[in-house]
Design a protein that fits this description.
- The complex is a heterodimer.
- Chain A is 74% helix and 1% strand.
- Chain A contains 15 helices and 2 strands.
- A two-stranded antiparallel ribbon of chain A has the order 1-2.
- In chain A, strand 1 and strand 2 form a beta hairpin.
- The N terminus and C terminus of chain A are likely disordered.
- By secondary structure, chain B is mostly helical.
- In chain B, helix 10 packs antiparallel against helix 11.
- Classes of the chains: A mainly alpha, B mainly alpha.
- At the A-B interface, helix 2, helix 3, helix 5, helix 6 and helix 7 of A face helix 1, helix 3, helix 4, helix 5 and helix 6 of B.
């Protein structure tokens, strides 16, 4: 397209009528370029902003901030470890629950489902993606948690109570509840990206396996899933990025207690929810600065996971999976 | 392998095939189920609280029954408008640059930036808007909330604009240029006009997405129990009000939170279903 457009001005010059005014072109091009570069500037601005805001805390605590497990605003001692722990454990639980479900659904959507139900199913999953975080939080508080507390948690405790993970009192609000809610929220993105990845597997792959007499499942396993492995990793990492940054629903169900406990039934805290809860209460400069630094840590891990996901997805040639979901 | 063994092996393979296909179907049902459960809950427990007062009255102080979320509904619309003033021009014109002018190097950086911005957690946008707008303006304001949401809109609008404009056939551009109209008029009058539907779809979907955001508003728009008469003052928003009411200890507020959530999700799903129905198939690839 660009060659075709670029070759036009010369053709116009040859006509030699009144020379067309070019200022409109220049202004418009300059305007769109500014807006496009604004995106890059905004990316830099976000990082710079958080760095400036957390300057005070970085200077005082250094790297110790990341490994200190005491969060005590009264004594001006700030350590992010309980939040990092809560964020990673809840996101990990979410992945454990969401990945098999999403990948199996993507397989169903691309390989197995009757053609006429594929589009409606995809639309339903898109609608699930559109549900706001705060509504999942609300549903989590009033429906999911009472149900987990009454049925699922005691059952898990009875079955796996010998593991430290499933010991201790059951409150309802807990890291496990947060993991389940996050899992529901990242199902759509992992499913959608996995579906794009599976769709980009060439049909030749499938046909070759069918020609060898493989059953439908064998075709999926041998020809599709193993071919799409990298792309699926990308989808999972993209889901992890979303899980790490999830704020409102987590704040509402995780219990908001900055402790590191082995039990999944115990309340925890996450990076995003400590910012959500304490930002407006931060009375001293150091307190605010520590919260900025938590934001910086959160930004750092999400950027790293996103770049990693893009690398995996680009390795699947021609896959635009990451762009398939807003 | 004897014939008998082969048959048995074959039966086993067929069984495995069916079992795993069934497993995938069950997973698909489980994935969609939460949507049904949430909608069922909101309709069952929220619809009863929706009455005329809910849409026309201010929230009541603690302890008094009744009241509504009129100010939050208007506040959400105010914030969406402000956000669009930020997000739409930057997103659309940036997308135009990517599709019509971009060189490979610049495009790579802009796309990279948009992908990174798209992955920035919503709470971080709140912090950024706080330090950029709330601190200099010395107070929470509708402006700060609107700009926080607007910044979130930029990458969404940018990418859809670029994709739908790339779908416009080059013949259109060449025909227009051959008639002698300036390049920029060709872009605006021919390419953008042809891609109009897709661009509007992208903007609407981005609005539906940010309409439900709570985290960026917590310390920018802040929330307000009364009408917002001035954009320099804090403003309420539906998601914010739902959050505050949901974590409160009062039953009547819980009831209101469910009603508010029903209104919010209806708004968002109507926009989503509406634009998808209107552009059925045509831009399916670029919008979702």
């Amino acid at each position: 397209m660009t060659e075709a457009v670029a070759s036009q001005p010369q053709a116009l010059d040859a006509v030699r009528l009144a020379p067309p005014s070019r200022w409109g072109d220049r202004v418009f091009k300059w305007l769109t370029l500014t807006m496009a570069l604004a995106v890059v500037m905004l990316m830099i601005l976000v990082g710079w902003n958080l760095y400036l805001g957390s300057h005070l805390a970085i200077k005082k605590f250094g790297l110790h901030f990341l490994v200190n497990s005491t969060w005590d605003p009264v004594r001006e001692e700030y350590g992010a470890l309980p939040f990092i722990f809560g964020t990673f454990v809840s996101s990990l639980l979410a992945l454990i629950i969401a990945v098999p479900l999403s990948v199996a659904t993507a397989v169903y959507l691309t390989e197995l489902a009757p053609l006429r139900i594929r589009q409606p199913l995809v639309s339903l999953i898109e609608m699930l993606a559109a549900v706001p975080s705060v509504i999942f939080g609300l549903w989590g508080i009033f429906v999911l948690i009472p149900w987990l507390r009454a049925h699922i948690f005691p059952w898990l405790q009875k079955l796996f109570g010998f593991l430290p993970l499933f010991q201790g009192p059951i409150y309802g609000v807990s890291i496990l509840a947060a993991g389940i809610v996050i899992a529901i929220m990242i199902l759509p993105i992992i499913t959608a990206v996995s579906r794009e990845v599976l769709r980009s597997v060439p049909d030749l792959q499938r046909e070759a396996a069918y020609a060898l007499g493989a059953t439908r499942w064998e075709v999926t396993r041998i020809a599709v899933l193993s071919y799409a492995r990298r792309g699926l990793c990308g989808a999972v990492i993209l889901g992890l990025g979303r899980a790490l940054g999830e704020t409102m629903a987590v704040t509402m169900v995780i219990g908001n207690r900055p402790e590191i406990v082995a039990s999944l039934f115990a309340p925890g805290y996450s990076l995003a929810s400590v910012i959500a809860n304490e930002f407006t209460e931060a009375t001293t400069d150091m307190y605010l600065s520590a919260l900025f630094e938590i934001g910086l840590v959160l930004l750092g891990v999400t950027i790293v996971t996103n770049i990693l996901a893009q690398l995996f997805l680009q390795a699947m040639s021609g896959s635009k999976g990451a762009r398939a979901v807003q | 392998m004897s014939l008998d063994e082969t048959t048995r092996h074959h039966a086993w393979r067929k069984l495995k095939n069916h079992a795993l296909s069934g497993f995938c179907l069950v997973c698909a049902i489980l994935v969609v189920m939460p949507l049904g459960l949430v909608l069922f809950y909101l309709v069952k427990d929220g619809a009863g609280s929706l009455d005329w007062n809910f849409f026309t009255h201010l929230p009541q102080p603690v302890g008094e029954i009744g009241g509504g979320m009129a100010n939050a509904i208007v506040g959400t619309l105010e914030l969406l408008l402000l956000a669009s003033l930020v997000g739409v021009p930057i997103g659309v014109l940036g997308g135009v640059y990517l599709s019509e002018y971009g060189t490979e190097g610049v495009n790579w950086w802009v796309r990279f930036g948009a992908d990174i911005l798209n992955g920035v957690p919503s709470i971080v946008w709140g912090i950024v808007a706080y330090s950029l707008i709330v601190i200099p303006m010395k107070g929470f304001s509708a402006y700060a909330g609107g700009i926080a949401l607007g910044m979130m809109m930029i990458p969404l609008v940018l990418r859809t604009t670029e994709e739908v404009m790339l779908l416009v056939p080059n013949g259109y551009r060449e025909a227009a240029l051959a008639l002698g109209i300036p390049h920029w008029r060709m872009i605006v009058r021919i390419v953008m006009k042809t891609a109009r539907k897709g661009i509007v779809t992208g903007i609407l979907l981005a609005q539906a997405r940010i309409a439900g955001e709570t985290a960026p508003l917590l310390f920018t728009a802040f929330g307000n129990q009364f009408w917002n008469h001035n954009l320099h003052d804090p403003v309420s928003a539906l998601p914010l009000q739902i959050f505050v009411y949901a974590i409160s200890p009062y039953d009547d507020w819980h009831r209101q939170a469910r009603a508010g959530a029903l209104v919010l999700i209806t708004m968002i799903l109507v926009i989503n279903i509406g634009v998808r129905a209107l552009t059925q198939g045509k831009f399916a690839k670029s919008t979702g």
